[in-house]
Specification:
- The protein has two domains: about 100 residues, no CATH class; about 200 residues, Jelly Rolls, CATH 2.60.120.
- Helix 1 runs antiparallel to helix 5.
- A hairpin with a 4-residue loop joins strand 7 and strand 8.
- The strands form two sheets. Strands 1, 3, 4, 6, 10 and 12 form a six-stranded antiparallel sheet that branches. Strands 2, 5, 7, 8, 9 and 11 form a six-stranded antiparallel sheet that branches.
- The protein contains five helices and twelve strands.
- By secondary structure, it is of the alpha+beta class.
Amino acid sequence: MSEAAVLAKLIVTIGVVAALAVSLYGSSGPAFPFQVNFPTFSNPFDASVHISTYSFLPTVGYGPGGNGTGDPAMTVDLTGCSIGWDCIRDLNGSDGASSYATLHNVAVFNTPPAPCNFNDPNSSPDANCRTLPFYLEGSGLKGEKLVDITVDIWCRTRNTTSPVRLQVSGIQQFNSTVQALMIIFTGQQNDVMLCPVGAFGHLSIRLARTGISGDTSAWANPLLMTLWMFDQGNAPWIDVSTVRMQGTYQTTTTGCASSTDFFTNIGCHLGAVGDASLRTLQLLVNIVVYIGQWLLAFITIMANVFVAASWFFNIPGLPTVVQNLLDAFFIGTTTVFILIIVRTLRGGGGA
């Protein structure tokens, strides 16, 4: 009979004896007092993805122009303020009818409440009256890519009895290389909100991720958001009191970009070498710690084994005569158990 078969029978026999002792004498069985914590390895070279969510408010423009101050040109009416972004910023929460911007939908060549841009060759006067562009404070996060957008708007419909749809038509960012605005987000068909008739209402919408097409990680320039009145006809008005945007960004890791600045290139590459060196050192430390944790886990397991084995020599409630007989049995089986393990490890096992 092979050592493996003998070993299996010994284990089964010990288990049966333990089960009989528990059932006959009401013992609770052997205890395992030490908790075993199996280690996990941490690789510092793993590319972890870091996600952060921020809240942004409308703010003064950073350019390029419109009216010479960096603010985009607006053709909407303003109530309670003189600058569009200031009307919808509201640091202390929505102020309702105290200040708001009004978007109009008018027929071509009719005189709207605000001076639409009739000279813009790219859009009709009607379209100009229906847009509200503004920058978002602190939204230019270099090294972080915009991956999710939620917009909160306090608005109302006027001059009609039915709610009018409002949409975030687009989000752009100024590209410093080509000196032009690039598209970050384009409004999708389902990205519309119904502004209630009468009192201001709070609307919140998570914009479709399929609309995000640009990468914001290359530049620190703030985002330019544009609201657009979706509905046409019947000359409706939409008053926008407050706007908030929550953007979820994903940290991106890139190599050194080519640059004509010698010191920029050298600094980037030296930083990359230093980072790799630190990660290598951390990897070596993690390997040593990982091995040590496995040794500790093994010692803990063996400690539990010895505690459990001691229970067999002092089973609570067992009569003395029966305990003495079992002691002799356990000593014999334990001796055979150890000999078989030693022979197996040394490769001296046989039939």
